[in-house]
């Protein structure tokens, strides 16, 4: 342990030394802030936005860091008490863990909070848990888990966009009878099964399932029965090698006219279009509920903005946050990133997303159920196993026992 | 004399320091944390042997042990049979001997991940086409998507790649055998089969031992091949222990728990290696 203390001392010494240099630079009023991002895809967009911000605020410099394995890097830096000033990170279990550690600035009393959509603020709050009631991150960009469809095929088959479960099954049946592949599955990669799972469970299972499950008041056996049945129904409308095709191959296959429907998130759309620029795509929320009004779009926070609570330049950091949250910046970001915005009144205009636009406008959204499952239980492989074995009771019991096991560690 | 000793020490110490700092010290840290509830960051408390007890009750860990041993044993046996055969072929007086030797060593130079992705492509696109054309039921879909067959795909890739190194070791062994021994044997009228079992095999026995131990140890720690081919799937059918430790420890926030698993696995691998050495060395020609 002595050894690591020595190392820590050296690191600390060096960083103090560097901070000292920074202080000298501050004599003429210049401040350098570090912006940490977990997405390599958005580096170019961020660079453009930073240049614009620096032009408006010549005394603030923003340094962008977007390392690979960003979440691990951030956790390591947390152990060294060396958090970046501003963080742009995913709204997932890691965000919740960091927020619970109390290292993020609480936005509760800031004016920027009124400019973001409250449903996403609540989603981030659920990740942190009920014991902490601050707002530790601002939802910036959001994603959608939906059904992507091949417009040409859907029109050819005369299918109307389904709004409830029966209509969806009828549409699948029609596609099957016409000799098409109704749904193109890519279950060789287990995580793609979670797009289906989240889409189905999002509209069938109550939002507070995870919280009640942690308290021992709920179980998969009791509440996921319908989800499991409907998963197996969907699987009947797959192709001949559902577990033999992965995500990349699936995108290519769907782009070249295999399959009418493809259950994936918005992140798959640029990939499909890349494989076939002429394809016409549409999207709709997976209608897993029998009641059309209950069918919301599964959407999560793709990018949350957070500010370190211990930064020396909170005022400047907040200035950058305000710049990011402004309507023009938010619009530029989602147009370049093909994402959706967490900022009130900013909408994705791409025609592909016409079918789900109403969900964003009316706030008919629900969160990704699996974001609240414990990370260690490896849900995706358990779901993949369930789809292969098709043994509903055993699979739901395994999900329950794996959850409890991880909780008890 | 004293000066000479200093020189030798200087040669050894840098490597020792590096090894200790980057290997032994982290390993000791891992053992230390296996007695805590450390998540990889933040605060932690001592929990005694709780993590160790939990590993033994963890169905996922036990099935990972099952898969890893099944895979390692089959792959070790196959690799050694194939390597001996290739080595004997390459050691004989054939045309293009040097070119062939280089060719057979190529797989070892290639990155496991790249080889894995190439084979994955073949399993996904080429094999099913062949299977469909020839009406072979089990080949007509991707075998990596079938929980009962996926492990065979991994065995194939692992054997194809690691046979290269084991062949090299057997070749080294074969070159230590004096040709005169064979001449004497053929004068005595020994047939090729007898020559192999009575002369070649006993004389390369030390190489057989080291190959068995090295291959077994490598396959027990299989990781890259599995990441590239199946990612542990379908389901958890091909989740090896290394993969489970990595997944749970770094992605699942179970650093301490998987450290305990790693300590147990370390003991298991050491025990197996020692047993192998003892048993195999006993039958070597002294």
Automatic annotation (TrEMBL), chain A:
Residues in the signal sequence? none
Give the InterPro entries listed for this entry: Bact_solute-bd_prot1, SBP
Q: Which Pfam family, any one, appears in the UniProt record?
A: SBP_bac_1
Give the UniProt keywords, A-Z: Cell membrane, Lipoprotein, Membrane, Palmitate, Signal
Source organism, top-level taxon: Bacteria
- PROSITE patterns under this entry? PROKAR_LIPOPROTEIN
State what protein this is by name.
Carbohydrate ABC transporter substrate-binding protein, CUT1 family
Give the species: Oceanobacillus limi
From TrEMBL, chain B:
Topology relative to the lipid bilayer, per the entry, is: Multi-pass membrane protein
Which InterPro entries does this UniProt record tie to the protein? MetI-like, MetI-like_sf, UgpAE/MalFG_permease
- Per the UniProt record, one Pfam family is BPD_transp_1
- Indicate the transmembrane segments per the record: 7-25, 67-90, 102-119, 149-172, 193-214, 262-280
The segment(s) forming the ABC transmembrane type-1 domain are 65-276
Per UniProt, subcellular location reads as:
Cell membrane
Q: Name one GO cellular component term.
A: plasma membrane
- Single GO biological process annotation from the record: transmembrane transport
| Annotated keywords | Cell membrane, Membrane, Transmembrane, Transmembrane helix, Transport
Q: What is its main location?
A: membrane
Write out the similarity annotation: Belongs to the binding-protein-dependent transport system permease family.
Protein name, please?
Carbohydrate ABC transporter membrane protein 1, CUT1 family
From which organism does this entry originate? Answer: Oceanobacillus limi
């Amino acid at each position: 342990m002595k050894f690591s203390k020595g190392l820590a001392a050296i690191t600390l010494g060096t960083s103090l030394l560097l901070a000292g240099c920074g202080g000298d630079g501050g004599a003429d009023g210049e401040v350098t802030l570090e912006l940490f991002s977990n997405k390599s895809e958005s580096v170019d967009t961020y660079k453009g936005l930073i240049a614009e911000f620096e032009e408006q605020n010549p005394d603030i410099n923003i340094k962008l860091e977007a390392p690979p394995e960003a979440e691990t890097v951030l956790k390591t830096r947390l152990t060294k008490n060396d958090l970046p000033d501003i963080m742009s990170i995913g709204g997932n279990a890691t965000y919740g863990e960091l927020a619970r550690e109390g290292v993020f600035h609480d936005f509760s009393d800031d004016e920027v909070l009124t400019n973001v959509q409250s449903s996403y603020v609540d989603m981030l709050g659920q990740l942190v848990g009920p014991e902490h009631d601050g707002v530790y991150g601002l939802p910036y960009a959001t994603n959608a888990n939906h059904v992507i469809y091949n417009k040409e095929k859907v029109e050819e088959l005369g299918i109307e966009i389904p709004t409830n479960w029966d209509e969806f099954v009828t549409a699948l049946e029609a596609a099957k009878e016409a000799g098409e592949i109704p749904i193109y599955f890519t279950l060789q990669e287990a995580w793609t099964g979670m797009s289906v799972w989240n889409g189905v469970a999002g509209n069938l299972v109550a939002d507070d399932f995870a919280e009640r499950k942690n308290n021992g008041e709920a179980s998969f056996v009791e509440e996921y029965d319908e989800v499991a049945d409907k998963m197996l129904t969907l699987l009947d409308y797959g192709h001949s090698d559902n577990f033999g095709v992965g995500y990349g191959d699936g995108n290519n296959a769907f782009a070249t006219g295999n399959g009418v429907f493809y259950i994936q998130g918005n992140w798959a759309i640029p990939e499909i279009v890349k494989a076939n620029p002429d394809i016409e795509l549409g999207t709709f929320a997976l209608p897993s509920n029998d009641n059309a009004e209950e069918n919301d779009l599964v959407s999560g926070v793709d990018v949350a903005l957070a500010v370190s609570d211990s930064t020396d330049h909170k005022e400047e950091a907040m200035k950058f946050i305000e710049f990011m949250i402004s309507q023009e910046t938010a619009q530029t970001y989602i147009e370049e990133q093909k994402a959706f915005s967490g900022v009130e009144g900013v909408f994705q205009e791409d025609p592909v997303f016409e079918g789900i636009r109403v969900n964003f406008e009316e706030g008919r959204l629900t969160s990704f159920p699996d974001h609240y499952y414990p990370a260690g239980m490896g849900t995706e492989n358990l779901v993949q196993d369930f789809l292969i074995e098709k043994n509903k009771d055993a699979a739901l019991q395994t999900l329950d026992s794996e959850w409890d096991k991880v909780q008890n560690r | 004399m004293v000066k000479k000793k200093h020189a030798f020490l200087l040669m050894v110490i840098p490597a020792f320091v590096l090894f200790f700092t980057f290997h032994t010290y982290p390993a000791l840290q891992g053992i230390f944390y296996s007695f805590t509830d450390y998540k990889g960051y933040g605060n932690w408390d001592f929990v005694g042997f709780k993590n160790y007890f939990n590993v033994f009750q963890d169905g996922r860990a036990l099935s990972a042990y099952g898969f890893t041993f099944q895979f390692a044993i089959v792959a070790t046996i196959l690799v050694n049979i194939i390597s001996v055969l290739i080595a004997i072929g390459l050691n004989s007086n054939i045309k293009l001997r040097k070119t062939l030797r280089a060719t057979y060593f190529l797989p070892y130079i290639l990155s496991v991940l790249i080889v894995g992705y190439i084979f994955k492509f073949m399993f996904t696109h080429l094999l099913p086409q062949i299977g469909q054309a020839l009406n072979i039921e089990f080949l007509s879909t991707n075998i990596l998507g079938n929980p009962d067959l996926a492990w065979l795909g991994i065995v194939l890739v692992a054997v194809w790649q690691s046979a290269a190194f084991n062949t090299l070791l057997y070749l080294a062994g074969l070159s230590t055998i004096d040709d005169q021994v064979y001449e004497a044997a053929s004068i005595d009228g020994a047939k090729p089969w007898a020559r192999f079992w009575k002369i070649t095999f006993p004389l390369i026995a030390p190489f057989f031992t080291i190959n068995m131990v090295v291959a077994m140890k490598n396959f027990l720690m299989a990781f890259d091949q599995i990441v590239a081919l199946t990612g542990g799937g379908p389901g958890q059918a091909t989740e090896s222990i290394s993969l489970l430790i990595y997944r749970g420890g770094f992605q699942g926030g179970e650093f301490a728990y998987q450290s305990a698993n790693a300590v147990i696995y370390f003991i298991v691998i050491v025990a197996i290696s020692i047993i192998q050495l003892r048993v195999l060395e006993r039958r070597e020609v002294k």
